[in-house]
Amino acid sequence: MPEDKIIEKLNNELKETRAQLSAMHNFVGIQDLKISIFQSFGKITANYFDLDNMLDNIMEMIIKTMKVEAGSLLLLNPVTDILEFKVVKGERSPELKKYKLAKGEGVVGFVAESGKALVVPDAQNNRSFRKEQPGNIKYPLENILCVPLKINNKVIGVIELVNKMANKHFIKEDLDLLESLAGQICLVIQNAQLIEESKEKIEELSTLISVSTIINSTLDLKILLNEVMDVTAKLLRAETSAIFLIDNEKKELVFEVVTGKFRENAANTVRIPMSESIAGWVARTGQSLLVPDVAKDARFYNRSEAIANFETKSILGVPLRVKDKLIGVIEVVNKFDGASFLPYEMKLLEALADQSAVAIDNAVVHKEFQEFFLDTTTALARAIESKDSFTGGHIDRIEHYSVAIAAELKLSNEAIEQIRWAALFHDIGKIDVSENILQKTGKLSDFEYEEVKRHPQIGADILKPIKQFKQIIPGILHHQERWDGNGYPNKLKGEEISLDGRIIGVADTFDAMTSDRPYRKGIARDTAIEEIKKCSGSQFDPAVVKAFVSACKKGNIKTEAELKAAPAKETATSQKQLKEKKKSGK
Asked: Whole-angstrom Cα distance, residue 494 to residue 482?
């Protein structure tokens, strides 16, 4: 073989060897890069337990190691099937993150729809992908690498890298590397979802147990529903939750319970037509409804926003039934993180609605029984009062005064209700006192006075066998005791006297002074108040006197004369309000 041919052959072999060495060098470099990336990946997943932090750090690492200007990770919303930016890295990231993309829109939309990776070497001149930049964001796109994120062959999102640095283009090795990383990211997301689902299931179970506990803890409907809806809003991470009850007569929905940001402005003010609202649709059809974006739903009734100064974005509503009768709607509004409610959350809300319905049914039955019992026993108390013709309306006034004083003392609803019942029956012992004594117009003899003094003890003895009245007996027994120990029947002193007795004692004395009798006219309101104040610390508890005076200043205590002088309409209104207060327990 000629020498020049040998040299040419050796040169070709040398070139081939150099090419092989270069390829091997590139291959080793890429493998080193992969090892480095996967090591970093492992450290990130080991050090961060929050999915958002993990994805943010993973994207930061990818941007640096693959030497690109910018990148983003988008996930498909399982309800809307819209791509939402989860992580954005690069110069315009804050502006870009608020946008959403539909499948088929731009490069990421194409990859999400097709499930295939894509390399765009010349993005500026590729007419097919000019919509890559949403809104008015202008960013110089040179080249793009985009791969799908898949779990069980289903696309859940997309990773997009933009502009290879140093004026380079994306090559096959870049695509292979990003696809490998996409697989690892999907595992991270899947594991995080499994952990989150487990947490949610535990939280859901805990909430359902909590709701059961709440249901068994009280029969006060308002308290019960507020507590249930507070738990519901917390579980579903909602800004606001509400219960609407149906007004069948007016064909409207009325806010019964509101929690969260909507509470103060909406309660007892907003009425929503059943024909025009999302809640109305649920009430009319009896079907649950999930609305990810109310702005795109014609059923949304935005007048409620204007009334409550509240921006509604998404709504989840379910029907509320009691014994197969639809009585209202439960709604939760706006997730705190801005995401949409999910179908499984609708099932959870339906379960909570079922439990709430049981609570409502129990509370309504209890309330009806309470009203019946109250009406019956009030009638009995008035029948007893009729023995003393001089004290007409006395028990109603004592009840009203006592409740007003208790409210000034900031007592609980339960304590106020107990005082109400004690006030109604404070004179029940007079049933065993002769009518001749009760209706005597002149001064009582010592014997007659001693007979009258027996009525607190007689009243306590009458009610003692009735277990429902156990708590009100001290108020009845003690209402004639004095703070200084000179009262009757047991000459108790100071706080030995029950608070109920101390309150009823002030109310009873004030009414006795200001009410007319056949043998004298009632004294003036201000004079009576001054007498009560003078007896503070001797006859009466100073704290109760202070509360009494405060209630008088607010106009919450009216004398018999004031009530008689009031216009008929005002009197009727006062009586109606009193009746409503009795029924509501307020």
From this structure: 8
Q: Find the angle CA(158)-CA(160)-CA(162) to the nearest 5 degrees.
A: 170
Spatial distance between the Cα atoms of 272 and 174, rounded to a whole number of angstroms = 57
Angular region, 393: left φ>0, alpha ψ -120 to 50, beta rest: left
Considering the domain architecture, whether residues 180 and 311 belong to the same structural domain is answered as no
- The band of 264, judged by pLDDT with boundaries at 50, 70 and 90, is low
Of 246, 255, 253, 265, give the one whose Cα is nearest residue 305. 265
Mean pLDDT, range 407-423, rounded to an integer: 93
Residue 28 clears pLDDT 70, i.e. is over it: no
Report the C-alpha gap between 4 and 9 in whole angstroms: 9
Cβ atoms of 476 and 422 within 8 Å: the answer is yes
Q: How many domains does the chain have?
A: 3
**Secondary structure (3-state) at 577:** helix
One domain, residues 178 and 243: no
Q: How much is the pTM?
A: 0.44
Contact 565, 422 (CB under 8 A): no
Residue whose structure tokens are 């921006």: 311
Can you tell me which residue has the tokens 């954005």?
88
Share of the chain above pLDDT 90, in %: 24
Instruction: Judge whether 16 and 36 are in contact, CB under 8 Å.
Output: no
Element (H, E) at 100: strand 100-101
User: Residue 239 carries which DSSP code?
Assistant: E
In tens, the pLDDT along 524-539 reads 999 999 999 999 999 9
What is the rounded average pLDDT for all residues in the chain?
79
122-132 average pLDDT score: 62
CB 337 within 8 A of CB 190: no
Domain co-membership, 153 together with 80: yes
In the three-class reduction of DSSP (H, G, I as helix; E, B as strand; rest coil), residue 426 is classed as coil
Residue 515 CA to residue 391 CA, distance in Å, equals 8
Q: Of 233, 214, 234, which is closest to residue 330 (Cα–Cα)?
A: 233
Q: Is residue 89 part of a domain?
A: yes
